[in-house]
Structure formats: structure tokens, C-alpha cells
Amino acid sequence: MMGLWIMAGVTFREAARRRILWTALLAGSAFLALFGTGMHFQVKDFTRQSMSPFIRYQLESGMVQVAFYAVNMLAVVMTILTSVDTLSGEMASGTIQAIATKPISRWQVLVGKWIGFAGMIAAYVAAMFGGVTAVGYFIGGVLPRNVLNGALLVFLECLLLLTVTFACGTWFSTLTNGVIVLGLHGLAFIGGWIEQIGAMTSSPRLVTVGVVSSLFMPSEAIWRRASFEMQSSFTRALQFTPFSNASAPSAAMIGYAVAYLLVAMFIAIYHFHQRDL
Amino acid sequence: MAIETLELRKVFGSKVAVSNLSLTVRRGEVFGFLGPNGAGKSTSIKMLLGLVKPTGGKAFVLGAPADDVKIRAKIGFLPEDFRFYTWLTASELLKLHGRLCGMAASRLRERVPALLELVGLTPHREKRLRDFSKGMLQRIGLAQALIHEPELIFLDEPTSGLDPMGRRLVRDVIRAQRDRGATVFLNSHILSEIEITCDRVVFIKEGEVVASRDLRACPDDEIRVVARTRNLSTETVAGLSQWGGSAGLEGERLTMTTHSTSALPDILRYLVASGCDVFEFTPERLSLEDLFLKIMGEDRGL
Question: Which CATH architecture has domain B223-285?
Fold first, then answer.
């Protein structure tokens, strides 16, 4: 098992050394600064307009939801972009040969790398969710509901995409892998919108199409559940925005996403073990 | 035995990379693995290291199946064109590989500086691999293959990208490994180096062993004789075939091959008795390159 933790450590260290993590956090800080500035001006304007405290609170909560939505997108993109070449790239360059001939099992190499990336993503999601919550609380006076649940669900979404990226990385080249995983997430994204429109217009067939797309790739469904958990009553009343949900995925869909992740991990390990390097 | 394979076979789709490889490598010998491009050498090495799964046959290294993970603690490997994480420093790379081999930190504290010294990279120990030249990468690759003092070392084109000093270093390292009792499995295109360093070689063609030579036993076969003669008749030249080899005459230069040093006095007597004047008579063993071309044929410019 030691090899697994060595691989996890070296993967995490790679993210730090190659400035991947720091660049992501810097970009995230820029985002938080922008968000904080926007919220600051929003608060000032609302104060000047003598807006009702209830409406003001709800609107500022909506602003925080917008920030979480952006954080979710950033986390998804960072997850895919940073991990897309970790297996396929090292197999193509032959780097993996020097590792795979050491006395550690291939599954330890793969899972070790996965843990390293998971640690990096956890740090990123925690920092960004913490940052948005802090800005919302200290500048806007808003404390979103269930932030921890939301952050954990977004972390789960990223882990799901990470695992699918790993599974595809044992088969395809870096570029093909990126196209496949981003394509699957895009499918889930569009499916989520179709489901929302279906719920808004009371069209069960549209909802079914959305649910089926979530079965193909449940990543977006996890975000919509996270968003549902965190949104305020006012945002929920708006129903149809990218940041609110007319149709929230059920707990069963989250269970399905976890099962999907486990199956993807099994496929990744099995195929990495079987394939020639 | 350090390595034993039995009818090892690997097929990629419709392409047969290794058709029927059966070979044995004794413990403690430096073994050369020769063949033209596309002969299946790299695929064979990868099967012996568990990187590629055989389609058929069996392979054992140090008495264990080739895909046994634990046995790799006793195996070192320098891949052809060594590449690794460019963000690591030379010291960090060796420590990482040592840890992957299960070495204790205290042992690594001694081994890492010693190996950096051995491969001449002590001044560059804190330099990152991204700033390394190809030759420096090859040197650090060699060091990582030796970090855990393995019993069996696979070197795939170890002198690739190295200058003459680097090549000398590789030769010295191989000798030192043999002296401490390790087995070295060497794949190189530079036949002159194989000739200097190896105890035994096999020639592989289309994924099959077609010949082997014990380079330390000084075999009697394949001796070439170059002579300078005058008044040599074509009948006499034709008569040289009785000693088993071919013969040819270009001006005064006679070249022929024979299979035994014991035939040399008879050949010389035969020439003199035929009435020709002999000014020079020089037996030469076939170089490995000559042998290689003879076995593989000269038309395989792949």
C-alpha cells in the first residue's frame, strides 16, 4: 500500500510544483475579488435604494448562488484539464514504464494518482466555497444554506468527472479523452436544461429526456442537487435560472452518481491492469 | 537462471511482434540482445518486465513469473530514451524511485549521493530534469535503474544520446554490476559495445532466436583469413572450399573463411604447395558486426 501513498504524494506535489494548483487558486482569487467587488457595489446600491430587507437578502443570496455556479464550472474545468493527460500522456511518453516496473501494482499507481488529484480538487473546492461564503457573509451579510452539503456535492461531481477522465485515459489519447469527457459533461449540461424546461412547462417527456441524459452522465445532476440544497426560498421561487432549480434531482440520482463513479473506477483499474504499456 | 522464456509470443492485431522466443540468461552474466529494427526486441523486454502481456508462452525472471510485482524489487530497468517528470530534481527523482522500490530513507541518504557521483551528476543534483540534456537524462535514468542494487538489470539502448565519456561510463557501470554478481540484459544497436561488454549474445529475427554466441569462450567458428599472394590460380582458390568456407580473390588479396584455427597450417601449406607466393597470411575473427550481417542478411535496412 506504500506505493499508493507515494503516487498520491507525487501527484499532489506535481500539481503544486508545476504551479497548476497555485495558478488555479490565483485565478480563483481573481474571481473572488471580482465577486466581492460586485457584491460590495450591490450592497451600496441596495442601501441607497432603501430596498426592503427581505428582498435585499434574497437578491444577495441569488448573487451568492451565481458565484457558486461559477465556482462549480471552474472546478469542473480544472478537474478535467489537469487530469486529462495524467495516464494517456505518461503512457504516450513512456514515463509510466519507469514507474510500472517498480514493485507496486498498477492499481496502486492509478488509485494513488487519483487520490493526489482528489486532494488537489478538495483543496480547490474548499478554498473557493469558503471564499464565496466569506464574501457573501462579510460583504453581503448573507449566509447561504447548506454550504457544506453543496461543497461536498460539487466535490463529488468533480470526483465523478475525474474518475471518468481516468477511465477514458486508459483507452484514449489525451485529446480524445478530453473531447469525450467534456462532451459527456456537455450532454449532461444540456440534458439538465431540457429537464428544467420540461419541469417549467409541465412536459413529462422533456423531463424524461433530461433524466436519461443524467443517466448517461450524472455530473450536472449533482450540481443541480447542490444548487437546490444551497438556494434560498426566493431563488427557488424564481425557478428558471441557471442558478436555481425547477426540478431537483432526487437522492436516488446522487446514489446513482456514486455507483457510476465506482463502476468507472473499476473499469479504469481493470483496463489499466490489462493493457500493454 | 536469471531469465527463462519458453515459446513467448506477442501479437498486436494482425502483426506478430514476437513469434516464438525461447531463451535463457544465466545469473551473473552480461547478456546481449541483438536484432534489426522491428525484430521484437523491445516487445520482448517489455514482456519480461510485465509491461506487455504475452499472447502465448511463458516467461520467468529470477525464478518468478514475469508479471510478479514483488520480484520487481530485484529488477532495475533503464527504458530506451528515458523520460520522467521534468519538475523533479535529480536528487528527488532518485529518492522517488528508491521509495517506490521500498528503500528506507536512511539507505537512500547514502545511495543517492553515491549514485549521482557514479553517473557524474553531483554538480547537477538540485537541477530540474527539464534543464537536463538528453545525455544527462540517460545518466540519471541509469542511476534510477541501479538505486536499489538490483539482481537483474535491463538496459534498453543505454548509450543512446551519450557522448564517448558517457559510453565509457556505461561500460564501466556494466562491468561493476557484473563484478558484484548482478545479471545485465543489454539491448543496444552499437555492436562494438556489445562485443566489449557482453559475455553472451543472442540474435533475434522476426521475434525468434536465430543464433547465439558465447563471446568469452573464443569459439573456433567463423574465422576469416586475409592473405596477400601472387601467382594464385583460380583452381587453387576453388580448392580452398575444402576447409568449409567461401574464398575470393581480388588482385593479390585473397579472402576466405574457415571454421577452425586448426585448419590454418593446412591452408597455408596448400597455398605454398600450389606454387603461389604468400606475402601475408592473417587470420581474423569475425567481428560481431560481420556476424550480425551474416546472420541477418545485409538487405534489411529497416
Answer: 2-Layer Sandwich (3.30)
Evaluate whether A125 touches A49 at the Cβ level (below 8 Å): no
Of A14, A98, A277, which has the smallest distance from its Cβ to B144's Cβ? A98
| B69 part of contact set with chain A, CB < 8 Å | yes
Q: What is the pLDDT of residues A217-243, one digit of tens each?
A: 999 999 989 988 888 766 666 655 655
The reported pLDDT for the residue numbered A240 is 55
Average pLDDT over residues A57-82: 90
Residue B218: pLDDT band with limits 50, 70, 90: low
Smallest CA-to-CA distance from B92 within B131, B51, B132, B129 is with B129
C-alpha cell at B251: 588482385
Contact A42, A63 (CB under 8 A): yes
Q: What is the pLDDT of residues B83-127, one digit of tens each?
A: 899 999 999 999 999 999 999 999 999 999 999 999 999 999 999
Q: Give the pLDDT of residue B43.
A: 92
The answer to whether the Cβ–Cβ distance between A98 and B97 falls below 8 Å is: yes
Domain boundaries defined on chain B: 3-214, 223-285
Check residue B161 and give its pLDDT.
82
Rounded to the nearest angstrom, the gap between the alpha carbon of residue B181 and the centroid of all alpha carbons in its chain is 18
Q: Do B77 and A101 touch (CB under 8 A)?
A: yes
Interface subset of A 188-227, CB within 8 angstroms of B: none
Structure-model confidence comparison of residues A23 and B55, the more confident one = B55
The pLDDT mean for chain B works out to 89
Q: For residue A7, give how far its alpha carbon lies from the nearest alpha carbon of chain B (Å).
A: 9
Q: Where are the domains of chain A?
A: 2-274
Q: What is the DSSP string of chain A?
A: -HHHHHHHHHHHHHHHHTTHHHHHHHHHHHHHHHHHHHHHHHHHHHHHTT--HHHHHHHHHHHHHHHHHHHHHHHHHHHHHHHTTTTHHHHHHTHHHHHHTSSS-HHHHHHHHHHHHHHHHHHHHHHHHHHHHHHHHHTT----TTHHHHHHHHHHHHHHHHHHHHHHHTTS-HHHHHHHHHHHHHHHHHHHHHHHHHHHTT-HHHHHHHHHHHHH-THHHHHHHHHHHH--HHHHHH--STTS-SSPPPHHHHHHHHHHHHHHHHHHHHHHHHS--
Between B296 and B254, name the one with better pLDDT: B254
Taking the domain B3-214, which CATH number applies? 3.40.50.300
Tell me what the mean pLDDT of segment B185-201 comes to: 87
Coil/strand/helix, residue B206: coil
Q: Is the pLDDT at A146 greater than 70, yes or no? A: yes
